[in-house]
Amino acid sequence: MGVAFRDILGDYKEPVSWESLAGTAALDAHNAIYQFLSIIRQPDGTPLMDQEGRVTSHLSGILFRSASFIEKGIRTVWVFDGTPPDLKQETIRERRTVREQASEKWQEALARGDKEAAYKHARSSSRIDDEVLRTSRELLDLLGLPCIQAPSEGEAQAAYLVQRGDCRYVVSQDYDTLLFGAPFLARNLTVSGKRKIRGRSISVLPERIMLPAVLKGLSITREDLIKVAILVGTDFNSGIRGVGAKTALRIVQNGGFEQAIMEKSPDTDWETIADFFLHPPVNENYLLEWKNPDREGILTMLCDRFDFSPDRIQRALDGMNVKTGQKTLDSWF
DNA sequence: CGTTGCGA
DNA sequence: TCGCAACGG
Prior knowledge:
Elements: E1 13-15, E2 23-28, H1 29-39, H2 57-71, E3 74-80, H3 89-111, H4 115-124, H5 130-143, E4 147-149, H6 154-163, E5 169-171, H7 176-179, E6 184-187, E7 194-197, E8 200-203, E9 207-210, H8 211-218, H9 222-232, H10 245-253, H11 257-264, H12 270-278, H13 295-305, H14 310-322
Parallel strand pairs: 2-3, 2-5, 3-4, 5-6
Antiparallel strand pairs: 1-9, 6-9, 7-8
Helix pairs in contact: 1-2, 2-5, 2-14, 3-4, 9-10, 9-12, 13-14
The protein binds a DNA duplex (8 and 9 nucleotides) through helix 1, helix 2 and helix 14.
């Protein structure tokens, strides 16, 4: 979701400093891991793999990004998806089809030696399987970072953590958490966010989106924002053809939502979808505990089992601890 | 994506 | 020291 939806959010994206993001953050694990699997690849699309051919792109991404977050004083909670709602079945089927077709196109591109196309299709063929999930959690556990299992959508759980005050903000590239009520969404939390300005390369600041500012600025309620999303399409419905975010916003602001649905998409059970965004299943009984990284455990897992270079891993581990002066991360807060 | 190595 | 290409697994 969100490709069209973001057209009305442009004015509410604020650049923020890394310092202002110190504290606890609920990380959309699916979103982050997908990004790692999708992007960390060779030019021909081959992901990082150990000697046995097991994919390791996600482990590389999790380790180095976590090291960077820890150095910046950002304590992450990794929120994993549970069982998707029935409402999402069609989207899931569509994604599987796209993935399978991308996989075929990847092989075809490889066969004809078109690396650029190979890389592009390989990215779209990315899939988070059980093995990726298991090894991700294993590494996060060794890093001492808490993982929460959502009963349903991870974005909903992440939004809940912030609403409840256990985290300051959600980290995700997707905007869905806003619909689930996250008051503070942070995007572009990448180390390598670099841009050239006047010949100089400066690091691009992360950006934040504050839900109250969005709602106030657009003069709508959260329920209205959800209606806008439903008109353009969500994970739970395909939206109305030809209606983008700006048109959808105007329709909702003018009170024309129900009529538009009735006329253009009468089969959309919008009330059920809206109710899911407003009252999603969440786990309310979680325990958040941060521990020191298990240095030996991480080295054993990544180097002995997955063929990472001990040198690189040690350097990353040094970066996580040295700055804290042997204190536990917890003692910062 | 994030790190590292290399040429200027 | 910087900027970019290549590597990592």
